[in-house]
Amino acid sequence: MFYASIHQSSYPSPRLQLQASTPLARCRNPARLHAYLATVCRIAVASYRIGGATDHVHIAARLARTITQAELLEKIKKTSSAWIKRQGAQYDGFFWQAGYGAFSIGWSQLDDLVTYIDRQEEHHHKLSFQEEYRMLLNRYHVEFDERYVWD
To answer: Which of 151, 24, 29, 124 is nearest to 81 (CA)?
Structure first.
């Protein structure tokens, strides 16, 4: 099982922390976007929860043995970008950032992760995405260089 987070960029530049160029806050119905992402995920994984805040999306899912993380995220980003652009002219410039963050968890952590994803809006009143992402990278002992994390 893995946890991915997708983040959107607030500036033009090509993370699952998936980043996008147009704030998801402008999305008329974020639940509809999350449902669409769940549909895309169903092709190759079992998704347990998809949600997020105004600038990123979290996905809790279990990969099938027939697809890699990179393949799944490429499919999610490609198909969802096209879908988002069809939602209106204000999304013409939408794109996800080039990278993403993906973290493994155990079954015993799934309930906590689902709760965490469900409470994203509340959570991000206290902590920015960047602060959260740095904490995750540190918790998982991932070395990173700030110059390249926020493309």
So the answer is: 24
Distance of CA 60 to the CA centre of its chain: 9
Express each pLDDT in 51-83 by its tens digit: 887 778 888 888 888 888 888 889 888 998 898
Per residue in 15-42, pLDDT (tens digit) is 244 545 555 545 566 788 888 888 888 8
Note the pTM of the prediction, 2 decimals.
0.77
Q: Where are the domains of the chain?
A: 2-149
In three-state secondary structure terms, 113 is helix
82 membership: H or E segment, kind and range: helix 69-85
Alpha-carbon Rg for the chain in angstroms: 14
Q: How far apart, in whole angstroms, are the C-alpha atoms of residue 91 and residue 124?
A: 23
Architecture of domain 2-149: 2-Layer Sandwich (3.30)
